[in-house]
Amino acid sequence: MKTKTFLKAKLAFAAMIVAGCLTGCGSSNNGSDFQTQLVNYLKKDLPVVTTSSNKYAAYFDFSGVYIAYNDPATHQTFNSLTQKVTGEASSFDIYSLANAKIQLLSGANSPAALFQKLHDSNQQGQLWAPIEKTLQKIADEGRPALLVTDFEEYTKDGVIYRQAYATPYFEKWLKRGGDIQFYVTDYVEGSLHKHLYYVVFDYNNHKLSKMVADALQGAPKNYRTFTLSVNSYPMATSYPSANQGGTYHDENGEDVVSMSAEDGKDGSFFMMDSLRAESYSFDASWQDILNNAHQQTLANGVQVPFHHLFSNLFINLSHADSYNIKQMAVVVTDVEKDFTLFNDWNTAMLNKPVKKHDTDGVYLDWDGHEAGQQYYDDNGNLLPEYNYPKIAQSQQPKVINDMLVFNNGLFEQTKAKNPARTELAIDFDPRFNGTIVGQSENQANDLLRIDIVVADADICPQDKINSLFAWDGNDCLSSAIKNVLQDMKPIGRPVYSYFVRIR
C-alpha cells in the first residue's frame, strides 16, 4: 500500500481504523494479545544486554599468583577449572594477563596446548597483570566471563593500588541485570595469608556459573562463595494448579472473592516467570471483592477463612550474601495510560512507513505495516501524542494509596522458620472501603500494577566482607565491594509484580 503525502485514499482510512482496533483497543483485551503486550511492557524496563561475541571470555592472571596455583589445595581447584575451560575451548576466548597486556592465548583447536600454557610455571610470575583494564573490558563487552586473579593491581613502580578501582565495573555489570559470583580460595605467600578468586560474571540464565559449579564438583571444597547481586533471590509459588493463581480459594478450590474464572482460556490468569510477574482479570468490582472477602470467615461457617488477597508466593533468602532484606512493602500504581501509550508507541516503531519516490513525488509506502498508519502524520513523522519516551519522562503512573499492604508479620515469621521459603503475601489495607480515591467511574477497569518492593535492607556484615576480600596491605577489593553494596542498595526495587484488571 502507498499513501501520497498530498492525498489519503479511503482504503487507507479504513485500514487506519482497523489498525487502531488491533493496537489501541487491543491494550484492554484479555488473551494472547494482551499477554504479548504485557510482556513487552515489562521488558521495556529491563537492561538492554548486547554482547560482542557469542563465546565466553576467560581471563587468567599470569603474574605473582603462580604461588597460589602451586599451593596443593588451591591447585586442585585451579586444575578442575582449567580442565573444564580447555575441555570446552571452542566456547571460550582465553586470555593471559601479564606485562600490562591482555593477550589472547593461541591454541583454541588444541585443548591440551591451552591447558599446558595455563599450567606452565615458566610463563607464570610475570609482572603487572592489568586487572582494572580487564574489568573494564568485561563490563564493556557484556559477555559472560570468568576471571582468575588475586586482584592485586600494581603500578610500574611496584606499588599495590589501594584504591577501590573495581567499583565502577562491578556496578556497570550489575546495572546490566547480571550478578557476580566469587569463589574464594586461601593461600599463604611467605607469612602473608592471601586469597585467590575465581570470579564469574553472568546473567540470570547462569549458564557459565553452572559450568563453573560443575567443574568444581568432586574437587575438595577448599573455597568459600559470595554472590554480589541486587536481586538474585529465587522465587517459587504453591498454587492449586497451573490455571489458578495466588488469590484466595475456598475448600472447593474456587475463587469466590475476586470471582476470577481461571479457566486458562481467556487470559484471566497467566504467569510470566522469567519476568517475576503475574496477571489477573477479576470478574467483581473492588467493592464486591472486599465484601466477598469479609464474608469468608469462620463465623460464617467457612472452612478456609480469607486472609490475603495474594499469597503462596515464596522467596529464597537463604543465600542472601549481598543484602539482608528486613522488610517489604507494596506499591500500587494505575498504569492504564502508560501501558496503552507504550503499546501504541511500540506498534508505531514496529510499523514505520518507508518513504519512496515515483513520478508524482514522494509517498509513504505502508505495505505490510498498515498497523502503524494512525501514529504518523502525512510526512511520516511520529505524532507527538504517541512519543512514549518523551511523554513518560514527565508523566509518571498515578500511585494509589491506602488500598493494599504487605504482610510483614508473615514475612518475618516464615523467614525465621525457613529463610529458603519466606512467604510474601498482600492484604487489603484496613482503611480501604472498596473505592479507589480519585478514580472516576470510567477508570474502574484500569490496569493496576501491584509491586512487592524492598522497604528496608542491610548490607552484609563488614567482617564478612573483610574476611573474604581483604588481607594485610590490600583492601582495594573489600573497599570496592562495600562501595557497590552501599551505592546499589535495593530500597524500592520490585522483587515481584501483579497486574490486575477488573473486567
Task: Give an account of the 3D structure.
This protein has helices at residues 10-23, 32-43, 66-70, 72-87, 111-119, 131-141, 167-175, 207-216, 286-295, 336-350, 388-394, 408-417, 462-469, 476-487; strands at 2-4, 56-61, 92-98, 101-104, 145-149, 179-189, 192-202, 223-228, 235-237, 269-272, 277-282, 310-315, 323-334, 354-358, 361-365, 398-400, 404-406, 422-428, 448-459, 494-502. It has a 7-stranded mixed beta sheet with strand order 4-3-2-5-7-6-8, sandwiched between helices. It has a 6-stranded mixed beta sheet with strand order 10-11-20-19-13-16. The protein is an alpha+beta fold and 503 residues long. The longest helix has 16 residues, at 72-87. It contains 14 helices and 20 strands.
Break the fold down into its secondary structure elements and pairings.
Layout: E1 2-4, H1 10-23, H2 32-43, E2 56-61, H3 66-70, H4 72-87, E3 92-98, E4 101-104, H5 111-119, H6 131-141, E5 145-149, H7 167-175, E6 179-189, E7 192-202, H8 207-216, E8 223-228, E9 235-237, E10 269-272, E11 277-282, H9 286-295, E12 310-315, E13 323-334, H10 336-350, E14 354-358, E15 361-365, H11 388-394, E16 398-400, E17 404-406, H12 408-417, E18 422-428, E19 448-459, H13 462-469, H14 476-487, E20 494-502
Parallel strand pairs: 2-3, 2-5, 11-20
Antiparallel strand pairs: 1-15, 3-4, 5-7, 6-7, 6-8, 9-12, 10-11, 12-18, 13-16, 13-19, 14-15, 17-18, 19-20
Helix pairs in contact: 4-5, 4-8, 6-7, 7-14, 13-14
